[in-house]
């Protein structure tokens, strides 16, 4: 799976960022998969773009503070993919009531008792998980988000869940320490069932030539008899979630 995460300059935000995201996508498809420089995109009944007669999946996202993110791969790697990158928005009770499943709301309350920052971090993660998941299955934000539960509580310790993705906030500081101290180091990008963090190469320059090795939390989870994997990264500036439906 190819990942791109770029922060565009100020002058390329807004509509220009949307155009830049597609330009970067076409460049990635050309560089990595040998497609023509501007392949024809089709859209399904929900408006999700795809490549007709190509065994390549992709999705892209961009945030209001200038980040653009792309995930692309082959159908051998995953059935579909969804990605969401968001600026770190402030905590909002009205948004929480709108998007949280009742059990997520209980988890949020426990985090709120530990501090507003933890509650805000959790709400940002849940929002991006749900958007990435709904983009992966192709429906987009059309479902009642409060009926979808993606906090993964109870999976901690089962050998597959990352600590940072369940309700107890034991891994938040660990992820921050990893982000600060592990960028650029070489390592195994393949996940293992016992890993709480994985390291993935991410293209990080506008020409897609520069690559950084970034830390992601990981979980693989069944949802409605389908298996999905989530890669998640959160910093002071953004939340990034990639959701893949596994073959």
Features:
globular; Ribosomal Protein L22, Chain A; single chain; three-stranded antiparallel β-sheet; alpha+beta; 247 residues; five-stranded antiparallel β-sheet
Count of the separate structural domains: 1
CATH H-tier superfamily: 4'-phosphopantetheinyl transferase domain
| Mean pLDDT figure | 82
The outline comes out as globular
Write up this protein.
The protein has one domain: 4'-phosphopantetheinyl transferase domain (Ribosomal Protein L22, Chain A, Alpha-Beta Complex). It is built from five helices and ten strands; from the N terminus they run E-H-E-E-E-E-E-H-H-H-H-E-E-E-E. It has helices spanning 15-33, 93-99, 102-114, 116-137, 172-182, and strands spanning 2-7, 41-43, 49-51, 56-62, 67-74, 80-87, 197-203, 211-223, 226-234, 238-245. The strands form three sheets. The chain has a five-stranded antiparallel β-sheet with strand order 6-10-9-8-7, with helices on one face. Strands 1-5-4 form a three-stranded antiparallel β-sheet, covered by helices on one side. Strand 4 (56-62) and strand 5 (67-74) form a beta hairpin. 36% of the residues are buried. The model is unreliable at 154-164 and 168-195 (pLDDT under 50).
List the helices and strands and how they pair.
Layout: E1 2-7, H1 15-33, E2 41-43, E3 49-51, E4 56-62, E5 67-74, E6 80-87, H2 93-99, H3 102-114, H4 116-137, H5 172-182, E7 197-203, E8 211-223, E9 226-234, E10 238-245
Antiparallel strand pairs: 1-5, 2-3, 4-5, 6-10, 7-8, 8-9, 9-10
Helix pairs in contact: 3-4
């Amino acid at each position: 799976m190819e990942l791109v995460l770029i922060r565009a300059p100020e002058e390329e935000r807004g509509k220009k960022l949307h155009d830049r995201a597609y330009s970067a996508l076409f460049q990635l498809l050309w560089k990595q998969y040998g497609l023509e420089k501007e392949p024809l995109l089709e859209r399904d009944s929900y408006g999700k773009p795809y490549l007709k007669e190509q065994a390549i999946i992709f999705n892209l996202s961009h945030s209001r503070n200038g980040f653009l993110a792309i995930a692309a791969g082959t159908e051998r790697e995953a059935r579909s993919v969804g990605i969401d990158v968001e600026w770190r928005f402030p905590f909002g009770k009205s948004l929480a009531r709108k998007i949280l499943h009742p059990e997520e709301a209980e988890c949020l309350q426990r985090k709120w008792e530990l501090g507003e920052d933890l509650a805000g971090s959790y709400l940002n993660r849940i929002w991006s998980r749900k958007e990435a998941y709904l983009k992966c299955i192709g429906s987009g934000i059309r479902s009642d988000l409060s009926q979808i539960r993606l906090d993964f509580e109870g999976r901690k310790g089962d050998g597959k869940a990352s600590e940072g993705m369940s309700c107890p906030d034991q891994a938040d500081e660990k992820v921050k320490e990893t982000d600060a101290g592990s960028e650029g180091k070489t390592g195994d990008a393949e996940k293992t069932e016992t890993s709480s963090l994985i390291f993935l190469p991410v293209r990080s320059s506008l020409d897609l030539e520069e690559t950084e090795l970034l830390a992601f939390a990981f979980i693989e989870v069944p949802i409605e008899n389908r298996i999905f994997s989530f890669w998640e990264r959160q910093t002071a500036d953004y939340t990034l979630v990639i959701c893949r439906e596994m073959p």
